[in-house]
Design goal:
395 residues, TIM Barrel, 6-stranded mixed β-sheet, 13 helices, 14 strands
Length: 395
């Protein structure tokens, strides 16, 4: 039997953090016992830091890893979209796959046990098949012209079959209101819900809200200048628009797990609407990406006050310097000092596992589970994250 002791152990299984705790586990990673060490000085394997379950990254675009360092910061979403369109085809497929493999290895060794990943093509499929990390792949679709809806759906169904051929859990999902016709938004949502899951970029930027509320702003002007169709002007939030399109293909309340990614512009009326529409809403927080693109953060205090189920993602290396869950948690802690590490880890581990419906295996240090065991070092004397904090996998 293997055993590791630490200054702090975070079980996340309904028990409070354990000071001077231990975790015992089998060679295959199955947790057998968690508790308080009777003599921490005598522990043969002691870590001065925290021992936690493996992380669940609920929003990543691993296939964009080759774009690290190519993007200008602070351009807003319109500028970001212009950059991604210009830079998407700047290296070979072999280079893209090598970058995916490298960064998935980095995430694994830092402690990411499971991931909800976005794919627009097949580049990541073989890498995911070979990785020890569990992944659910959301096959994201775009298309602003209504007449293209049937062809786009046929194409993503073909990509879904290809993903299945690699043994992956994968299904279509819509991208965002500003890249999809109303018809495609509804059709892609219906396709995704067949799998029991949906992931959707929602209220990521004020420019997105301008588009839907008033038919104005940089994103609206970019689309019009490019000759693209634009979403209908509703006078309401883009979240309400999404919920309306969802209701057109699925009666409310929706029982499937729906992940709303970003929600930087979320307001109380949107929260009220999503609680009526969705039985199992989840929010993916990607704070470093939000700061990178448009220097804003989601209303975390409002989300907490309303009891929303929060998770943590890294987004992609087109809008982030790294794919580091601890860095995301540190960012949240710095901007919202009321947050304690125990709560942040619930978001980054257990809630993510619940979204993926894998919490019987992942998410907490409970006997019988195989969540991965991770060490977090570089904490201060009170157990908070610092600029020197890091994570590394134990098993």
């Amino acid at each position: 039997m293997n055993r590791i002791a630490a200054t702090y152990v975070y079980p996340l299984d309904g028990h409070a953090p354990i000071r001077n705790g231990f975790v015992e586990y089998r060679p295959d990673g199955t947790v057998t016992a968690v508790g308080t060490s009777p003599d921490i000085a005598a522990e043969p394997c002691f870590f001065d830091g925290a021992v936690v379950p493996g992380f669940v990254n609920t929003h990543c675009h691993a296939e964009l890893s080759y774009m690290r360092g190519l993007f200008r910061r602070g351009t807003g979403m319109a500028g970001f979209i212009d950059q991604i369109n210009a830079l998407r085809d700047t290296c070979s497929r072999e280079e893209r796959i090598a970058s995916i493999r490298h960064w998935m290895d980095v995430m694994w060794h830092r402690g990411v046990t499971a991931m909800a990943d976005i794919s627009n093509g097949p580049d990541s499929f073989a890498v995911k098949q070979a990785s020890p990390m569990y992944t659910r792949t959301f096959l994201e679709v775009f298309g602003t012209e209504p007449e293209d809806c049937a062809d786009v759906i046929a194409s993503v169904r073909s990509l879904e079959c290809e993903a299945w051929s690699f043994g992956l859990d994968a299904a279509p999902t819509p991208h965002a209101c500003y890249t999809m016709s109303p018809e495609l938004l509804s059709a892609a949502s219906a396709e995704g819900l067949r799998s029991g899951f949906l992931s959707y970029h929602s209220e990521e930027t004020p420019q997105e809200e301008e588009m839907l509320r008033s038919g104005s702003g940089p994103m609206w002007e970019n689309r019009r200048a490019a000759g693209m169709s634009v979403p209908p002007v509703t006078g309401a939030s883009s979240l309400r628009y999404f919920l309306d399109r969802l209701q057109s293909v699925h009666p409310f309340p929706v029982e499937e797990n729906v992940l709303l990614v970003h929600e930087v512009c979320l307001e109380q009326d949107g929260i009220d609407a999503l609680k009526e529409a969705l039985l199992h809403p989840f929010i993916a927080l990607c704070p470093l990406s939000n700061l990178y693109i448009h220097d804003a953060l989601p209303p975390v205090p409002l989300m907490r006050a309303n009891g929303l189920t929060l998770t943590v993602g890294t987004d992609s290396l087109s809008s982030n310097d790294d794919l580091d869950i601890v860095a995301e948690l540190r960012c949240l802690q710095q901007h919202f000092p009321v947050l304690e590490l125990d709560e942040l880890l619930h978001w980054a581990c257990l809630n993510g596992a619940r979204f993926l419906k894998k919490d019987t295996v992942f998410g907490s240090l409970a006997p019988g589970k195989r969540p991965g065991i991770v060490r977090i070092g570089g904490m201060d004397a009170s157990g908070r994250l610092t600029d020197e904090s890091y994570s590394e996998r134990v098993i």
